[in-house]
Amino acid sequence: MNFDLTEDQKDILEAVREICEEELAPKADEIDRKGEFPWENVELLARYDLSGIPIPDEYGGLGADFVTWTLVGEEIAKACSTTGAIYGANILCIHPIYVFGTEEQKRKYLVPLAKGEKIGAFGLTEPNAGSDAAGGLASAVKDGDEYILNGTKIFISNGGQAQIYVVTVKTQPGRGARGMSAFIVEKDTPGFTFGKQEEKMCFHALANCELIFQDCRIPAENMLGRENRGFRVAMETLDVGRIGMAVGAVGLAKAALEKAVKYSKERIQFGQRISSFQAIRHKLADMATEVEAAELLMLKAAWLKDQNRPFGRIAAMAKLYSSEMCHRVTDQAVQIHGGYGLMREYTVERYLRESKLFEIVEGTSEIQRSVIAGHVLK
Amino acid sequence: MRIIVSIKQVPDSSEVRFDKETHTMIREGLPSIINPFDENAIEAALQLREEHGGQVIILCMGAPHAEEQLRQAVAMGADQAILLSDRRFALADTLATAYSLSTAIKKIGDYDLLLFGKQAIDGDTAQVGPGVAEMLGLPQITYVRKIQISDSKVIAQRVLEDGYEIVQATLPAVLTVVKEINEPRHASLRGVLKAKKVEISIWKPEDIDADPARIGKNGSPTDVIETFTPEPRGDSQQLSGTPEEIAQALFALLRQQNII
């Protein structure tokens, strides 16, 4: 057993911390307040080679492992949760193309994604198919060497901004999970449009919108993986996505803990720093312990993935625990700040709002428990 | 275009202490960084390479551990790094440093532009860049805040106390740059990984055919008697208006303070 990072990982993290502290963190509040998709940060991810970390060099990536991807993501999310979410949503498009894509698909789509020249999105959720991921109605019908896509996807992160989309639709309606196929669709394909940008309680600058397909014709060669095997593509992608959600939650919780520690050392009440009160000290101790535990689950899931071992169970645990931990920790960070905690100026109120996303997106806590129970009881 | 950027390793602190005997800085125990103005010079070189193509070579004279700063420059995007490091180079003043760097630059050869930071934050002399220019017989433009290259010429904006002047020189030329010229980039991850593997050339006096009498302590006539921060000058006041109005106002002020 070895908990040490490699020399490469240490050097990468040192560089990433500097970038995050100096270029991402100072603008994070403003980005959320303005509510505009931060393209300048997407360009920053490309400039510093942060987009394709776990993708091999031959496909435009950095050729590092998935553990490195999580550690870097944590730093990004800690500095700017919106950028962390873009980074996380991007892997949902990168990963399935890397795993299931043909050589041509990888050359055409993976390379620009890994280099950061383009960003991606993944579309699974539909108005009537959330937790019931196989219950969607969007469909694709083969017509010669094309497929005609019809239907709607909702809440899609990076939606409307991304240039490359991986979507799952029914190619054999009535067969549920066994009748789904995955496709790569490019922005600006005729028949592919976007609904309005959703207004959310948090992550105001993160793009989330409807993907609308109306007789959208795409070449048959854009099918990702085999026909009617799209549910597998979706599940594999969600497993990775769950690690990604843990990454965002741990990063955000770390930011909240850091702010709480700093404030407790500065705030004087009853003639002493509030960090000297047991009530505050115990809160901070619990927060720090929970952050550490969540990070270990996250790293174990990533490590299992790097070893090519099954990681779905631990990824679900990491997602469940990290997201609920993040909610508790950000809540306590607000509590420690007292009245100031409610004020926008102190940022922790944003953290608390944002924490809620992690408990819902990419499988609610309830779905994670159901997945974990399935493993426990089998 | 081939650009050579000379950089210095400096201590990363304003909390430096001085040796009372030698009046020089105590460097032990302080973390080292690339002299901040030299980082601006590296950034300027990288931008010129992006615009005109070519190569950026980093040159540094210093202790063996200055290799770390050279690797950092490679991580930012430099193509090659050379370290002049030998006991015989040690304790050099600005004259011996300029001599050593200029001999190394001659050996590198085939350059179009030599860039320096305007000065190092430890010594603050601002003499090495100009010294190298003199020794190589090249035109020099100091305190540059903007560089434009066209047709074997460099047109630079040179910062003055109350504005800037536009100066043109033929290439090759020596430029020293100020902080406002750019915002130095961070290293990219690809750069970080490349910098770990890159081979840093280490040159000794004989590698650059240096005259032993002109390098290191032997070549350094400087004797540091005292190091101190000059007393700040009093608050200044700027008068505006027509020349006549300014003269009147100045006259009134001088009278008021019983100077005339």
Overall pLDDT of chain A = 96
What fraction, in percent, of the residue positions of chain A are helical? 40-55%
**Uncertain parts of chain A:** none
Radius of gyration of chain A equals 21 Å
Q: What is the H/E order of chain A?
A: HHHHHHEEEEEEEEHEEHHHH
The name of the CATH topology of the largest domain in chain A is Butyryl-CoA Dehydrogenase, subunit A, domain 3
Task: Give structural notes.
The complex is a heterodimer of chains A (378) and B (260). Chain A is an alpha+beta fold. Chain A has eleven helices and ten strands. Chain A has a four-stranded mixed beta sheet. In chain A, strands 2-3-7-6 form a four-stranded antiparallel beta sheet, covered by helices on one side. In chain A, strand 2 and strand 3 form a beta hairpin. Chain B is α/β, with parallel strands linked by helices. Helix content of chain B is 28%, strand content 26%. Chain B contains six helices and 13 strands. In chain B, the strands form three sheets. A nine-stranded mixed beta sheet of chain B has the order 11-10-9-12-8-1-6-7-13, with helices on both faces. In chain B, 38% of the residues are buried. The A-B interface holds A 7-8, 11-12, 15-16, 18-19, 22-23, 47-50, 53, 62, 64 and B 75, 185-193, 196.
Describe the secondary-structure layout.
The complex is a heterodimer of chains A (378) and B (260).
Chain A: H1 7-24, H2 28-34, H3 39-47, H4 66-79, H5 81-100, H6 103-115, E1 120-123, E2 139-143, E3 146-157, E4 164-170, E5 180-186, E6 192-197, E7 208-219, E8 223-224, H7 230-266, E9 268-269, E10 272-273, H8 278-306, H9 312-337, H10 348-360, H11 365-376
Parallel strand pairs in A: 1-4
Antiparallel strand pairs in A: 2-3, 3-7, 4-5, 5-8, 6-7, 9-10
Helix pairs in contact in A: 1-4, 4-5, 4-7, 4-8, 5-6, 5-7, 7-8, 7-9, 7-10, 8-9, 9-10, 9-11
Chain B: E1 2-7, E2 9-11, E3 17-18, E4 25-26, E5 32-34, H1 36-52, E6 55-61, H2 67-76, E7 80-84, H3 94-108, E8 113-117, H4 128-136, E9 140-150, E10 153-160, E11 163-170, E12 173-177, H5 189-197, E13 201-203, H6 243-256
Helix pairs in contact in B: 2-5, 3-4
